[in-house]
Protein backbone atom coordinates (compact mmCIF):
# COMPACT_ATOMS: atom_id res chain seq x y z
CA UNK A 1 0.00 0.00 0.00
CA UNK A 2 3.03 2.26 -0.10
CA UNK A 3 2.26 3.15 -3.71
CA UNK A 4 -1.10 4.67 -2.70
CA UNK A 5 -1.38 8.27 -1.60
CA UNK A 6 -3.28 9.49 1.43
CA UNK A 7 -3.69 8.49 5.02
CA UNK A 8 -4.77 5.11 6.38
CA UNK A 9 -8.48 5.94 6.20
CA UNK A 10 -8.44 7.10 2.57
CA UNK A 11 -6.33 4.11 1.52
CA UNK A 12 -8.78 1.71 3.15
CA UNK A 13 -11.72 3.49 1.45
CA UNK A 14 -10.00 3.07 -1.95
CA UNK A 15 -9.36 -0.62 -1.35
CA UNK A 16 -12.98 -1.23 -0.28
CA UNK A 17 -14.34 0.80 -3.21
CA UNK A 18 -12.17 -1.15 -5.65
CA UNK A 19 -13.37 -4.43 -4.10
CA UNK A 20 -9.81 -5.37 -3.20
CA UNK A 21 -10.70 -5.70 0.45
CA UNK A 22 -13.85 -6.45 2.44
CA UNK A 23 -15.26 -3.50 4.38
CA UNK A 24 -13.83 -3.60 7.91
CA UNK A 25 -16.17 -3.09 10.89
CA UNK A 26 -14.36 0.03 12.04
CA UNK A 27 -14.54 1.94 8.73
CA UNK A 28 -17.92 3.67 9.39
CA UNK A 29 -16.84 4.74 12.89
CA UNK A 30 -13.58 6.11 11.52
CA UNK A 31 -15.45 8.06 8.83
CA UNK A 32 -17.66 9.70 11.47
CA UNK A 33 -14.71 10.59 13.70
CA UNK A 34 -11.50 10.57 11.65
CA UNK A 35 -8.15 10.67 13.42
CA UNK A 36 -6.29 13.93 13.73
CA UNK A 37 -3.94 14.80 10.89
CA UNK A 38 -0.71 16.59 11.60
CA UNK A 39 0.82 19.00 9.11
CA UNK A 40 3.99 17.85 7.42
CA UNK A 41 7.01 20.04 7.17
CA UNK A 42 7.47 21.61 3.78
CA UNK A 43 11.12 20.87 3.25
CA UNK A 44 14.03 21.42 5.57
CA UNK A 45 13.30 22.26 9.20
CA UNK A 46 14.85 25.62 10.08
CA UNK A 47 17.42 25.71 12.87
CA UNK A 48 16.49 27.58 15.98
CA UNK A 49 18.89 30.40 16.77
CA UNK A 50 18.81 32.74 19.70
CA UNK A 51 20.05 36.33 19.53
CA UNK A 52 22.90 35.56 21.95
CA UNK A 53 24.26 32.59 19.97
CA UNK A 54 26.68 34.83 18.04
CA UNK A 55 28.27 36.00 21.28
CA UNK A 56 28.31 32.49 22.75
CA UNK A 57 30.42 31.37 19.78
CA UNK A 58 32.77 34.31 20.21
CA UNK A 59 33.07 33.48 23.92
CA UNK A 60 33.99 29.87 23.12
CA UNK A 61 36.62 31.06 20.65
CA UNK A 62 38.21 33.18 23.35
CA UNK A 63 37.78 30.65 26.21
CA UNK A 64 37.79 27.14 24.67
CA UNK A 65 38.18 25.50 28.11
CA UNK A 66 34.67 26.77 28.89
CA UNK A 67 33.15 24.53 26.19
CA UNK A 68 33.01 21.69 28.67
CA UNK A 69 30.39 23.45 30.81
CA UNK A 70 27.02 22.01 29.96
CA UNK A 71 25.27 24.34 27.57
CA UNK A 72 21.97 23.16 29.00
CA UNK A 73 22.04 22.03 32.61
CA UNK A 74 18.64 20.76 33.62
CA UNK A 75 19.69 20.38 37.25
CA UNK A 76 21.23 23.84 37.66
CA UNK A 77 19.62 27.19 38.33
CA UNK A 78 22.38 29.34 36.92
CA UNK A 79 23.20 29.30 33.19
CA UNK A 80 26.70 28.46 31.92
CA UNK A 81 29.25 31.28 31.70
CA UNK A 82 28.94 31.55 27.92
CA UNK A 83 25.22 32.38 28.13
CA UNK A 84 25.81 34.84 30.97
CA UNK A 85 28.47 36.56 28.85
CA UNK A 86 26.24 36.69 25.77
CA UNK A 87 23.21 37.96 27.67
CA UNK A 88 25.34 40.65 29.32
CA UNK A 89 26.59 41.79 25.89
CA UNK A 90 23.02 42.01 24.60
CA UNK A 91 21.97 43.91 27.71
CA UNK A 92 24.77 46.43 27.25
CA UNK A 93 23.98 46.82 23.55
CA UNK A 94 20.36 47.65 24.41
CA UNK A 95 21.66 50.42 26.68
CA UNK A 96 23.44 51.97 23.70
CA UNK A 97 27.00 50.69 24.17
CA UNK A 98 28.87 49.66 21.01
CA UNK A 99 29.39 45.95 20.37
CA UNK A 100 33.17 46.02 20.94
CA UNK A 101 32.83 47.92 24.22
CA UNK A 102 29.99 45.66 25.37
CA UNK A 103 32.10 42.56 24.69
CA UNK A 104 35.08 44.10 26.49
CA UNK A 105 32.96 44.96 29.54
CA UNK A 106 31.34 41.50 29.64
CA UNK A 107 34.76 39.89 29.24
CA UNK A 108 36.18 41.96 32.07
CA UNK A 109 33.24 41.00 34.30
CA UNK A 110 33.74 37.31 33.47
CA UNK A 111 37.47 37.44 34.28
CA UNK A 112 36.93 39.31 37.56
CA UNK A 113 34.20 36.87 38.60
CA UNK A 114 36.48 33.93 37.82
CA UNK A 115 39.32 35.49 39.84
CA UNK A 116 36.96 36.24 42.73
CA UNK A 117 35.81 32.60 42.81
CA UNK A 118 39.43 31.39 42.86
CA UNK A 119 40.30 33.85 45.61
CA UNK A 120 37.26 32.80 47.67
CA UNK A 121 38.24 29.15 47.41
CA UNK A 122 41.84 29.82 48.45
CA UNK A 123 40.50 31.75 51.44
CA UNK A 124 38.24 28.80 52.32
CA UNK A 125 41.25 26.49 52.21
CA UNK A 126 43.27 28.83 54.44
CA UNK A 127 40.49 28.95 57.01
CA UNK A 128 40.16 25.15 56.97
CA UNK A 129 43.92 24.74 57.47
CA UNK A 130 43.93 27.21 60.37
CA UNK A 131 41.06 25.38 62.06
CA UNK A 132 42.67 22.01 61.41
CA UNK A 133 39.70 20.79 59.42
CA UNK A 134 39.62 18.84 56.21
CA UNK A 135 39.96 20.96 53.09
CA UNK A 136 36.58 21.81 51.53
CA UNK A 137 35.60 20.57 48.14
CA UNK A 138 36.04 23.19 45.44
CA UNK A 139 32.65 24.87 44.99
CA UNK A 140 33.79 26.19 41.59
CA UNK A 141 35.56 23.27 39.91
CA UNK A 142 36.44 23.37 36.26
CA UNK A 143 34.04 21.57 33.98
CA UNK A 144 36.72 19.08 32.93
CA UNK A 145 37.37 18.14 36.56
CA UNK A 146 33.61 17.69 37.14
CA UNK A 147 33.41 15.30 34.20
CA UNK A 148 36.51 13.41 35.39
CA UNK A 149 35.03 13.10 38.89
CA UNK A 150 31.86 11.57 37.44
CA UNK A 151 33.87 9.12 35.33
CA UNK A 152 36.38 8.23 38.06
CA UNK A 153 34.09 5.67 39.70
CA UNK A 154 33.73 3.82 36.39
CA UNK A 155 37.46 3.92 35.71
CA UNK A 156 38.24 2.42 39.12
CA UNK A 157 35.38 -0.04 38.78
CA UNK A 158 37.15 -1.88 35.97
CA UNK A 159 39.84 -3.08 38.39
CA UNK A 160 37.56 -4.36 41.16
CA UNK A 161 34.16 -5.29 39.69
CA UNK A 162 33.99 -9.12 39.48
CA UNK A 163 31.74 -9.05 36.40
CA UNK A 164 34.20 -6.88 34.50
CA UNK A 165 37.15 -9.01 35.65
CA UNK A 166 35.30 -12.11 34.42
CA UNK A 167 34.77 -10.53 31.00
CA UNK A 168 38.46 -9.59 30.83
CA UNK A 169 39.48 -13.18 31.68
CA UNK A 170 37.17 -14.51 28.94
CA UNK A 171 38.69 -12.09 26.43
CA UNK A 172 42.21 -13.14 27.44
CA UNK A 173 41.28 -16.80 27.06
CA UNK A 174 39.75 -16.15 23.62
CA UNK A 175 42.86 -14.24 22.53
CA UNK A 176 45.10 -17.08 23.74
CA UNK A 177 42.97 -19.64 21.89
CA UNK A 178 43.13 -17.47 18.78
CA UNK A 179 46.93 -17.31 18.95
CA UNK A 180 47.18 -21.08 19.40
CA UNK A 181 44.84 -21.71 16.48
CA UNK A 182 47.06 -19.55 14.28
CA UNK A 183 49.93 -21.81 15.01
CA UNK A 184 52.16 -20.11 17.51
CA UNK A 185 52.51 -18.04 20.61
CA UNK A 186 53.76 -14.60 19.63
Automatic annotation (TrEMBL):
Taxonomy, top ranks, is: Eukaryota, Viridiplantae, Streptophyta, Embryophyta, Tracheophyta
To which protein family does this belong?
Answer: Belongs to the mitochondrion-specific ribosomal protein mS23 family.
**Is rRNA processing among this UniProt entry's keywords?**
no
**Protein name stated in the entry:** Small ribosomal subunit protein mS23
Record's keyword terms, sorted:
Mitochondrion, Ribonucleoprotein, Ribosomal protein
Q: What is its main location?
A: mitochondrion
Q: Where in the cell is it found?
A: Mitochondrion
Mitochondrion: is it a keyword of this entry?
A: yes
**What sections of the sequence does the record tag as coiled-coil?**
none
